Amino acid sequence: MPTKYIFVTGGVISGLGKGISTASIALLLKSAGYKVSVLKVDMYLNIDAGTMNPLEHGEVFVTDDGLETDQDLGNYERFLSQTLHRHNYMTMGQVYWEVLNKERSLGYKGATVQGHIHVPEAIIEKITNTGKKDKADIVLIEVGGTVGEYQNVMFFEAIRRFKQKYPKNVFIIHLVYLLMIDSLGELKSKPAQASIYELYKLGLHPDMIVCRSKEAMDEKRKERISFNTGIDENYIIKAQDVKSIYEIPIIFEEQKVREKLLKLMSLKTKSKDLKNWEKMLANRESAKKEIKIAIVGKYFTSGSYSLEDAYVCVIEAIKHASWAQNVKPVIKWLDVENYNPTELKEFDGVIIPQGWGSRGVEGKIKAIEFLRKNKIPYLGLCFGMQMAAIEYARNVLKLKDANSEEADPNTPNPIIHIMPNQKEYLSKNQYGGTIRLGSWPCKVKENSLLEYAYKKFGKDDIEKGIINERHRHRYEVNNEYKEKLIEKGLIISGTSPDGKLAEVVELPKSVHPFFLGTQFHPEYKSWPLKPHPLFMAFIEACLK
């Protein structure tokens, strides 16, 4: 069977939820018995998302093979319950980079390299390679940005050529937004229609329209869009706001999106299985008991806005583990520079997630001290683990000037220091893609809290005392202080297999009900149908 390609484009406004729609449709097609792959395309010229500010672009997601990507890949993995790779992510920066490198190596055999010819060719090649590498029956490609923007013209040209060459194998789903103007009291569809016309101007005819709106679109609006654009009414789909993104596949299934797409592609349903997904949603709905979780971070606020996307993986991981234990998480975001540690008393558990630089360090250390002394369940992620080691050194080892070289390059007690191989990168200003990235093995200490979590909640994830988790860091625990920390009661329960890198620190259960920090990012590998063992153990401790 030739691979089918479905492009998911957007119009009217950005941030419509193309990623969630793509992930939801991918789940439905996978449930029909097909091998599905997904590709995210961003139009910016960055090679990857690694150097971008979380306040500007949201949380960075890291693949097993070490690429820093857009958060949409995280959504794809969570919905599909499958691991994706660096070939599932493309930026226009990558495309131009490859075209120019090919020209330098005479890959074009002396021809004049032209953007409108060779760039679309390179895009099509990367798309088809994704299908081949994943041996996929169906590939969904989410196109970043909105139709009509100058920066994505080359990409839409690539779609046009691709669809022209393979009309029976290439399809387009276009997301639009229906505006609700309170003073008029109705959904307005003209901007959505104009967005579809923009596709027509580019020589593209969408096969399906998904209409995002605050409230569900009525039949009158559907008829109007169909009449004015020529799109079959049966292929105009409602996508109203919902409480949880995980409801979207069910909303699409109720409108027979799966059946309609398979019919378009001349494919039959091999199977149909959404039972586990529906069970997960039922658990979420039935959960009555609440637990209060605080996330103490520094990427929440931009002006007067609160930006949850900076920690979306952490938030979703909390939800997965809570629903699996039939509880409802109430999550509160505390800006590390604008709170009092005593506020943490009201919470059942606290997480300090990733971060970079010196800003907010002292606030995080004070929070950890309060949590440790008051025996409130604590989970530290990456930077949160490093801050836990510093707090312990300051207040238990009595090294009052202990710090991280990242926060204070001249600290006399660098409990956290830069990894030796990273110094050369920094001296040459080589920041992008040079940190410790991707999945690395970790040796688990017997009879530790770490081992307990994996053996109880993730037996498939631990083998012969080894786990594999994803990393994104440049600094680590300084081995010169390891023995001193251990002597004073801190347990280093996870290390690299050679014992040189500290991966997990914790306190004995006799001292604290749950105090654990990881250098890796467990949140990257939490799925709604398979919550991460460490978040499961954390929520369990919060319940107690």
Note down, in words, how this protein is organized.
- The chain has 544 residues and is an alpha/beta fold.
- The chain folds into 2 domains: 276 residues, P-loop containing nucleotide triphosphate hydrolases (Rossmann fold); 257 residues, Rossmann fold (3-Layer(aba) Sandwich).
- Helices cover 35% and strands 23% of the residues.
- It contains 18 helices and 25 strands.
- The strands form 6 sheets. It has a 9-stranded mixed β-sheet with strand order 15-12-16-17-25-24-23-20-21, with helices on both faces. Strands 5-2-6-1-7-10-11 form a 7-stranded parallel β-sheet, sandwiched between helices. A 3-stranded mixed β-sheet has the order 18-19-22, with helices on one face.
- Helix 5 crosses helix 6.
- The longest helix is centred in the N-terminal third of the chain and has 19 residues.
- The N and C termini lie far apart (53 Å).
- The model has no long low-confidence stretch (mean pLDDT 91).
